[in-house]
Amino acid sequence: MGDEVKSSTEKKLDKESGTDLMQKPEISADQFFKVFDSSIQGVRQCKLISAAFELGVFEALRVPMSAGALAEKLGCDPVLMPHFCEALHSLGFLDRFEEGIDKEEEKAQSVQKDADESEDRRKSEAGFENLSPDDQAKNGRAVYLISELSATYLLKDSPFSQQHYFAERVRNAERWARLPQIMRKGPDIVEKGPFFGEIVHCMAENARCGLLQETVRVVRENVDFTGIEKLLDLGGGHGLYAIAFSELNEEIQAFVFDLPPVTKETRHFIEKYGASRVDIIPGDFFKDEIGSDYDLIFSSFNPGGKVPSLIPKIAEALKPGGVFVTRQVPDENTKSNPIMSLDWNLWTFEDVKKGSSGFSFENSVPFNEYINMLGSYGLEVFRALDMDDGSRIVFAWKVG
């Protein structure tokens, strides 16, 4: 009888297990795996590029080189390096030549002969002789060289280098790696001076890749620069906008107003581009005077660009008929990205409180509301343009 009961129970369990095994989730797993897989893929790519920087791969591959020779040069594992190079190639950061070796490589062969022989020995020890001829060509004999993409954006001496930007993105990723601790203890406290002093280089790199040129073009099309003699770049950071605007009229004297640690970096860019008619004004625009008699005041992604208390100071600093140009991301475009809003709130300044949505600070108002306030201080909006990056440029002139 016991055996019959046991047998019946086992059959019941088997049946239930069978039913559970074949039962599918009511909600599809596609979205779940898509989020996780794309997230992990992004982490892998970020770590890959970061490692390439740290190892000196891009600088080394200014000249064509095999993976084995590269491993020898950088002191890396010869078995992993072909896969490493292929991964970078798949992202477009390395070019690969699979058939033969070009003339430049032939000239370098005498120098690399010992390294190649060492590579062959290691490949043999690692079982590379068992690979197909195609795989051997791809993983053992291919020659790699920095691509136009990496040469443009990842080499330090390129005018469009994004090394500061990439370093800042890596720091941001490291902050997200501490997300559980930040959630428990609260946002990281960041010192304003060092933060802006470093971030200014990141912003300058970004601006050089199209943002600067497009912005200057749009402003020039909507402002008559023949009558501009005195210009202020408010919260101008790197000063590239002031430098570019000063070249539109040889009579322009331009000034960049920003925090003292920032304007130290502004000097670097002024000297780099030989901008003799651009100067700095160190200060805190919330507390200090910003100057007067300006024909044009320009403000691009200024952290205080949505704070109403600055409007009367800006209006007073303009000449009658002077133009105020401000660029910000409208709130409706920042609130639509909850992950970016969380990112914005993971850090803050000790003496300045940030707003809950991205790119806003305490006492900020929605950008549309800020623009509507301009009229109360004699600034009449004559044009507003939505840009491809989601930002908006607004033009207003001082009546009277």
Shape: globular
According to CATH, the fold-level topology of the domain at 211-332 and 353-398 is Rossmann fold
Largest sheet: 7 strands, mixed
Order of helices and strands: HHHEHHEHHEHHHEHEHEHEEHEHHEHEE
Class of secondary structure makeup: alpha/beta
**What's the helix count?**
17
Supply the CATH architecture of the domain at 211-332 and 353-398: 3-Layer(aba) Sandwich
Please give the radius of gyration in angstroms.
29 Å
Distance between the termini: 106 Å
How much helix is in the residues? Answer: 40-55%
User: Residue-averaged pLDDT, rounded?
Assistant: 85
What is the CATH homology-level superfamily of the domain at 211-332 and 353-398? Answer: Vaccinia Virus protein VP39
Give the beta-strand count.
12
What is the CATH class designation of the domain at 211-332 and 353-398? Alpha Beta
Parts with pLDDT < 50 across at least 5 consecutive residues: 101-113, 125-134
Amount of beta strand: 15-25%
In spatial order, strands of the major sheet run 7-6-5-8-9-12-11
Structural write-up:
It is a single chain. With 400 residues, this protein is of the alpha/beta class. Among the domains are: 45-151, Arc Repressor Mutant, subunit A; 211-332 and 353-398, Rossmann fold. The protein is 52% helix and 16% strand. It has 17 helices and twelve strands. The chain has helices at 2-22, 30-55, 57-60, 67-74, 80-90, 103-125, 133-141, 148-153, 163-177, 179-185, 192-222, 240-246, 260-272, 311-317, 331-334, 338-345, 367-373, and strands at 65-66, 94-97, 143-146, 188-190, 230-234, 253-258, 278-282, 294-300, 318-328, 347-349, 379-386, 392-398. The strands form three sheets. It has a seven-stranded mixed sheet. A three-stranded antiparallel sheet has the order 1-3-2. A two-stranded parallel sheet has the order 4-10. Helix 14 (311-317) links the parallel strand 8 and strand 9 (318-328). The longest helix is centred in the middle third of the chain and has 31 residues, at 192-222. The protein is globular, with a radius of gyration of 29 Å.
